[in-house]
Write a structure and sequence with these properties.
Largest sheet: 6 strands, parallel
Number of strands: 8
Helix content: 25-40%
Distance between the termini: 11 Å
Shape: globular
Number of helices: 9
Strand order of the largest sheet: 2-1-3-4-7-8
CATH topology: Rossmann fold
CATH class: Alpha Beta
Length: 241
């Protein structure tokens, strides 16, 4: 049996991964769903990317986790890449679920279309703490397009503002993901339109991993809400030996 650590994306907390973790645990695996520093409701929204990465590194080390299958969703891809660079000896495999794959010196905003950067800049400028919140129409149409209007609304109400510095800070890596010796997988949800299809997740970002295992399932960027059981199966498929 394996040990999974599931790292959420922007605007989320680890708690939102629990419906996905449940079937994985029922299959006999151990699953951790930590919240990245900066994403707890009471956290400072001035948190930068380095602190975010450190929080997951510290979580793995403080719990003495070994042979970890480390998954990152969306923004979480930035975090798990940094963790893999720092403590590769504690990891068994990386899984990117419709996630950003940074090379050394890149930031998340380098990988999103210009209109998103403009929106994030405008929203953060209006906040008092340099945080960003995703407007509901974008959430409903582009992020959870496979869910009902009721699910879109109820899930949106569980989100919280995200520290924008984690989008603009560049990552410092000793080696790029394609050069890392760890096995890697990429889960691609085929109806994910959180990024425009012309600048999509796969293969544009997945191919930055070099050699990787591809697992594709039907669903949106937020299939953790709309079909957690299907995502759980995909995670186990992506993490198997």
């Amino acid at each position: 049996m394996s040990t999974f650590v599931l790292v959420h994306g922007a605007w989320h907390t680890g708690e939102l991964f629990e419906p996905v973790a449940k079937p994985i645990r029922e299959a006999g695996h151990t699953v951790h769903c930590p919240t990245v520093t900066g994403n707890n409701p009471g956290d400072l929204r001035t948190t930068g990317l380095d602190v975010a990465i450190t929080s997951i590194t510290d979580y793995i080390e403080s719990n003495d986790l070994k042979d970890v299958i480390l998954l990152g969703h969306s923004y979480g891809g930035m975090v798990i890449t940094g963790v893999a660079d720092r403590i590769p000896g504690r990891l068994k495999r990386l899984i990117y679920w419709n996630a950003f794959v940074p090379n050394n010196g890149e930031c998340l905003n380098d990988m999103v279309p210009p209109h998103y950067v403009g929106m994030f800049d405008a929203v953060s400028a209006e906040s008092s703490d340099n945080s960003v919140m995703l407007p509901f129409p974008i959430w409903r149409e582009a992020f959870i397009n496979d869910g009902s209007s009721e699910l879109a609304q109820s899930s949106y109400e569980r989100l919280n503002a995200h520290p924008y510095a984690t989008f603009t800070d560049t990552i410092s890596l000793s080696s790029n993901p394609a050069e890392m010796e760890l096995p890697k997988s990429y889960i691609n949800c085929t109806e994910d339109t959180a990024l425009p299809q012309s600048l999509g997740w796969h293969p544009r970002l997945s191919e930055k991993l070099g050699l990787f295992r591809l697992v594709q399932i039907s669903g949106s960027h937020e299939v953790c809400f709309s079909n957690p059981a299907a995502l759980a199966k995909a995670i186990m498929d992506a993490g198997r030996d």
